[in-house]
Amino acid sequence: MTMPNMKRVKVSSEQALRNALAKGPGSRLEMMIVTCDATSRDTHISSEQVRQAARENGWQPGRSYTLNGNLLGHVIRQS
Fold first, then answer.
1. What domain of life (predicted)?
2. Contacts of the segment 56-62: beta carbons below 8 A, 24+ positions apart
3. CB-based burial, 16-41: b 16+ in 10 Å, e otherwise
4. What gap in Å lies between CA 11 and CA 44, rounded to an integer?
5. Global pTM value
6. Residue 39: which domain range?
């Protein structure tokens, strides 16, 4: 499986996630939200939190990927 090549935005809190999504897509039709997995308790944002925040801000959540180390990538597309 190949990893999609797109704009990546790393967030470490739910508030940072919501701020990034609220900025709007600009010219991007899709992007990858990068979060830490559950082993990083201080900065962990669950996949469900990402999907919910994406929907609330007009994005369509897509597939999630395991990236290097303890990072997860969540693809979202403009609705």
1. Bacteria
2. 56/21, 57/18, 57/21, 57/22, 59/21, 59/25, 62/30
3. ebeebbeeebeeeeebbbbbbbeeee
4. 9
5. 0.86
6. 8-78
- CA–CA gap between residue 9 and residue 28 (Å, rounded): 12
- Do the domain assignments include residue 71? yes
Q: Give phi and psi for 15, each to the nearest 5.
A: -65, -40
CATH number (domain holding residue 55): 3.40.50.150
Sheet-wide strand order for 71-78 = 8-10, 30-36, 71-78, 59-66
Write the CB contacts of 74 (distance below 8 Å, at least 6 apart in sequence).
32, 33, 34, 35, 47, 50, 51, 54, 61, 62, 64, 65
